């Protein structure tokens, strides 16, 4: 079976959760009998493909048995229309929702309502919509998306994190981190709890570090610009780091006070590394994790502060949560993702 696994604008999304999710899909399928195509265009680029079609009547699209698109732009729309015309099963992966687009870039909240209407139309073209969680399925059904929707974990690449412990001294020295380090991983957005992260740092004495890129141009939100340019004394924004293992080596408690999330791959990565994890009380985390077993879940800033204090005072609690978190992460291994993807494609074909 030949499957198109397409990520539009891949070069711009390689540092995003969407890019990581697609990497996971492709890695999960590498050990299966599925042959993966990563571009729909016969000549590798839409411009060359269309040019060849106009000049020589060559086909624009390559051949595949299932089309699986991971973004929502014009290239993905073109693939969706081709799949419908050619009677090729179409899978659209809902990594983007109106809710998780809010509080990201400057003006994102103004665009979000129109985006929701567009997503309803786009996702409704699918033979099957995949999404990371039951929570996201409920969000899509509320639009409503008029296509079958199936939750499937984004998974976690446990093997890619091997050796993270060996990075600890280097990364703590590089960013001048000491003691119990509270950390986050990923793009710096207000939606991901930036203000709460910084205000908690102001109320405590721990070192805080956010490992991940942030926008500094006109598209950056005012909140991101404010905190990144004038952070509390005990907060470090590292920007992009080449080896993500360094973040999990340097940090001790993973803090994620996000406002909305479809799953949160970095949470699973922290869990796979045996870190104590402190999360906001949102539906998707209640769906996947258990408060007091593999994480601590908090409703407000006071509860976050209390959780950090408990973890600082009780290393045994940190260890217990971390060990249970490792077991949870194994349930999201790429071997399971690969099996579910193959079953999905076979069902549609």
Radius of gyration: 21 Å
Approximately what portion of the residues adopt beta-strand conformation?
A: 5-15%
Broad structural category: alpha/beta
* Tally of helical segments: 15
- Biggest sheet, spatial arrangement of strands: 2-1-3-4-5-6
Tally of strands:
12
Main beta-sheet strand count, sense and barrel state: 6 strands, parallel
Mean pLDDT metric: 92
Q: What are the low-pLDDT stretches, counting only 5+ consecutive residues below 50?
A: 48-58
Helix content: 40-55%
Shape: globular
Distance between the termini: 9 Å
Please trace the helix and strand order, writing H or E for each element: EHEHEHEHHEHEHEHEHEHEHEHEHHH
Describe the protein's architecture and organization.
The longest helix is centred in the first third of the chain and has 16 residues, at 108-123. The protein has helices at residues 17-29, 46-56, 74-86, 98-101, 108-123, 134-141, 168-174, 194-203, 222-229, 245-250, 265-272, 283-288, 301-313, 315-330, 334-348; strands at residues 2-6, 35-37, 66-69, 90-93, 128-131, 149-151, 181-185, 207-211, 235-239, 253-256, 276-280, 296-298. Strand 1, helix 1 and strand 2 form a beta-alpha-beta unit. The strands form two sheets. Strands 2-1-3-4-5-6 form a six-stranded parallel sheet, with helices on both faces. It has a six-stranded parallel sheet with strand order 9-8-7-10-11-12, sandwiched between helices. Helix 1 (17-29) packs across helix 15 (334-348), helix 11 (265-272) packs across helix 14 (315-330) and helix 13 packs across helix 14. It has 349 residues and is of the alpha/beta class. The model is unreliable at 48-58 (pLDDT under 50).
